[in-house]
Design a protein that fits this description.
The complex is a heterodimer of chains A (513) and B (333). By secondary structure, chain A is mainly alpha-helical. Chain A has 23 helices and no strands. Chain A is globular, with a radius of gyration of 23 Å. Classes of the chains: A mainly alpha (513), B alpha/beta (333).
Chain lengths: 513, 333
């Protein structure tokens, strides 16, 4: 194929460079302005072991729990199924500290379960960490698996029915290949997300045994101002992620596909007994839904105490979120345009970017950016644009993972025709590419917007009273005894986040087929 | 087109006029922690009171929590716009002093009213409090009466991580100052009382209020908030026989300030009623200088420890790393 309609390569390279510079490159300013070389102490190795252990266990549990749920949702159609799928997305989008309080309202020592059973539950420790990580990531894995099921050609299913496949045959010939293809990538994704877990691991972990590398980075930057140590720990985290990723790639696995765009129920031959599927769906709804109800019951009493600053903080959060989303998806599109249809090295580059973006520490990026720009502009005057930019960068992996297969598909199926028609690049973009990927784009925009909305890492570094966002306001309220108002702010944050996600996602789903 | 040019000119004129206006009225920029600056903190009252006497603009900038404040000053270095930093505590002052970014405290500040002698050449205290374990007196009727008794009891507690929070560091220093060589044994005995360790004060106090633990590491003054602001007398702080570790919060002038005289004026203002009278019911700490009105009703119900513990700033800095290692080793059993 001639150079056209391949999108501008320069743009792709530029976008990829920006992402790498902001993530991996972030350690350079830290190293340069550090006094003396960083050192690792014996305790760091214990931290490393625990970090790996909890992340691996979280990933395993998430994928195991997702299989029956995804299978049930894939083969059953029931009233409210579409609503269940939308609500399934919710836990992944809730800011961590809000979600932790919600989980505790159900499972805590004074939570609903303890109250009803009369026993005092103690979930702190590994149990609590795993529970929270499954709460956050189960929906993600489920959506990825559902995409796998949706990808099974209907002819295969018809054939299976005609041949009278037993559930065992279906597993061997249809389900196992799906699981083989999707699970390793999904597990890797969860592993990486849990690798950088910090607030969850500490708050529910029960003590210093449950310390992750991210906390050590936090300590080095906040208390000791040991920039080189922070850089070293950050590299360690990055190296860990890349090693795991390489092992996975070397074993012949490719990264996971998209995030569940087509979620229609499939006419997979179903087992006679519907109760297994019903139990799986009910259990998941209870596990994921009750803490969300807990959040609502915690948040409502404080609504009248909301400070006047809430409205402005909410507007700032929305602004940051939308800006980050647009930047992030533009970057992801530019990269996807360059990488799509390529196999081999370019595809590997795409995967690499995803992994790097997932394991980069927001605190390290923020501090590095601060050091890099402080000679030129006042970082605090640009707190909101900087927050948007860093969140945009952190969102690229997710957007890329969704958009890459979509862009790939559109270029392969419609590229040659567009080329033979001699479409201008502008027309190609507006009339062919963007409409073609609209469903994926909607989901990507929604996800990044939700992440940026909940940001606390970057704004806590650059933010001040004049640039207070909703999460920052919530923390301020918590820090001044005003727990009720803080929980109300948390509820508003959750509602706003879900709304902004639903708007983008619905826009995408309304695409014409 | 015409309109556009006029607008641009107007904008230019405004931009030029701004620095002139600023020259007429001096501006003092004070960095403080977020909750100090918030609507419900001391910030708004103090700003109004100081502006009434200084013929200047006081700009309070919320810059994260206590530890983040120092990180921010170090990041900004000599380029900082700030004139005064308000909200470091004695666990951080040695590190702050060693940056060389702070100027000596001004002349003319009266002697602070603290349970300990104050002779820091750089920093002026603005409020203080005692760390304490706070509990619900309707649920816990026989609270432990010492650190060691707490560790030996089956009372559950939530504490903060000393690597990410100032109260968490305060407890580690409390054990060092009160127990010395017995600190490792204390942490080992306490480890089964600890429900969880949180990254900051907010999470810990939130968990306590939700009923996740019998006690939470906070301040002797915390019950005053519930009593005065919520008319809820159910929270108490336990008095411990070994004494209570103090937190003294301080303010200092940055050497790079372009308003050194105004900054000195502000530090002297800290010692007056205009600043101190706002502290008890907005920052929920004790004033660092005696006020005419004294502390409000409700503060008299608080426990007053017999022994005030505080390691000198240099010693606190020197012992911090080992003390945190002891904490980790004890809790990891």
């Amino acid at each position: 194929m001639a150079r056209w309609p391949r999108p501008v390569t320069l743009l792709s390279v530029g976008a990829a460079t920006l992402v790498v510079a902001l993530t991996v490159g972030a350690v350079i300013p830290l190293m340069l302005s550090a006094e003396g070389a960083g050192r690792l102490v014996a305790a760091d190795w214990a931290i490393l072991r625990f970090t790996l252990f909890q992340a691996a266990l979280s990933a395993a549990l998430c994928t195991l729990a997702a299989i029956p749920l995804a299978r049930a949702l894939a083969r059953r159609d029931f009233p409210g199924r579409s609503l269940v799928l939308t609500l399934l997305g919710a836990p992944f989008l809730v800011p961590v500290i809000v979600a932790v309080l919600g989980l505790l309202s159900v499972w805590g020592r004074a939570g609903w379960v303890s109250e009803i059973t009369g026993a005092t539950l103690d979930i702190y420790g590994l149990t609590g960490i795993l529970m929270a990580h499954v709460f956050f990531n189960l929906p993600l894995v489920t959506r990825m698996l559902l995409t796998g099921w949706a990808g099974v050609p209907p002819e295969h299913l018809r054939l299976a029915t005609q041949l009278g496949f037993t559930p065992r045959d279906i597993y061997t010939h249809i389900e196992r290949p799906i699981l083989r293809e999707v699970l390793p990538g999904a597990a890797l994704l969860v592993f990486l997300i849990c690798l950088t877990s910090f607030s969850v691991a500490l708050t529910l972990g029960g003590g210093p045994r449950a310390t992750t590398i991210e906390l050590a980075i936090y300590q080095a930057l906040r208390f000791e101002f040991d920039l080189s140590r922070a850089a070293l720990l950050s590299l360690m985290q990055l190296g860990l992620a890349l090693t795991v990723a390489l092992i996975l790639l070397a074993s012949g696995q490719r990264g996971a596909g998209g995030f569940g765009l087509s979620l229609r129920p499939q006419s997979i031959p179903k087992p006679r007994n519907p109760w297994i599927d019903r139990a799986a769906i009910t259990a998941a709804l209870a596990f994921l839904g009750l803490p969300m109800l807990g959040l609502i019951s915690l948040g409502i009493p404080g609504m009248p105490d909301l400070p006047d600053a809430t409205l402005n903080a909410a507007l700032r959060s929305i602004g940051v979120s939308i800006a980050a989303t647009l930047i992030s998806c533009s970057l992801a599109l530019a990269i996807a345009g360059g990488v799509a249809t390529h196999r081999g090295r370019a595809a590997l580059l795409g995967e690499g970017l995803v992994l790097i973006g997932l394991t980069a520490s927001p605190l390290v990026i923020g501090t590095a950016l601060f050091i890099a720009i402080r000679d030129f502009i006042d970082p605090f005057a640009f707190a909101l644009p900087l927050t948007a930019l860093v969140n945009a960068t952190l969102g690229v992996p997710f957007a890329l993972r969704i958009l890459l297969p979509e862009v790939d598909r559109v270029i392969r199926t419609r590229g040659p025709l567009a080329q033979s028609l001699g479409l201008s690049r502008r027309l190609w973009l507006r009339r062919v590419l963007l409409p073609g990927i609209r469903r994926g784009l909607g989901l990507a925009l929604g996800l990044v917007a939700a992440f940026a909305m909940g940001d606390l890492g970057i704004i806590a570094l650059f933010g001040s009273t004049e640039t207070e966002t909703l999460p920052l306001l919530m923390f301020g309220l918590m820090g001044s005894f005003r727990t009720d108002a803080a929980q109300a702010t948390g509820l508003i944050l959750v509602l706003l986040t879900l709304t902004i996600f639903a708007i983008f996602d619905t826009w995408g789903r309304r695409a014409q087929h | 087109m015409h309109l556009k040019r006029t607008t641009t000119l107007a904008a230019l004129a405004t931009a030029c006029a701004l620095p002139l206006a600023a020259q007429e009225r001096r501006e003092l920029i004070v960095y403080a922690y977020d909750s100090f600056v918030s609507d419900w903190g001391p910030g708004p009252v103090i700003e109004a009171n100081f502006e009434a006497i200084c013929n200047c603009d006081l700009t309070l900038v919320g810059a994260g929590d206590g530890a983040a404040l120092l990180s921010r000053i170090r990041l900004e270095g000599t380029r900082s716009d700030a004139d005064v930093v308000l909200g470091l505590d004695t666990n951080l002052t040695a590190a702050a002093a060693s940056t060389g970014l702070f100027a000596p405290a001004p002349e003319g500040v009266p002697t602070p009213d603290l349970p300990i002698a104050w002779d820091d050449p750089l920093f002026t205290p603005f409020d203080w409090g005692y760390f304490a374990f706070v509990y619900d007196n309707t649920k816990l009727t026989a609270a432990p009466e010492s650190l060691m008794a707490l560790a030996a009891s089956d009372t559950t507690v939530v504490i903060q991580d000393p690597r990410s929070s100032t109260p968490g560091l305060g407890l580690v220093m409390w054990a060092e100052a009160a127990l010395g060589d017995e600190a490792p044994a204390f942490w080992e005995a306490l480890s089964d009382n600890i429900v969880t360790v949180t990254p900051g004060w907010s999470e810990a106090y939130g968990l306590f209020l939700e009923g996740e633990a019998d006690m939470v590491l906070s301040y002797t003054t915390s019950p005053a908030y519930h009593l005065i602001a919520e008319e809820d007398p159910s929270k108490s702080a336990a008095a411990f026989a070994e004494g209570h570790y103090m937190q003294v919060e301080v303010a200092g002038i940055l050497a790079g300030s372009d308003q050194p005289e105004l900054a000195a004026e502000f530090i002297r203002f800290i010692a007056t009623d205009g600043f101190q009278s706002a502290i008890p019911t907005t920052n929920w700490m004790y004033p660092a200088f005696a006020t005419e009105t004294g502390v409000p009703d409700g503060f008299d119900t608080l426990i007053t420890p017999d022994t005030a513990l505080l390691l000198p700033a240099e010693e606190a800095e020197a012992r911090r790393a080992d003390a945190i290692a002891t904490w980790r080793a004890g809790l990891a059993q």
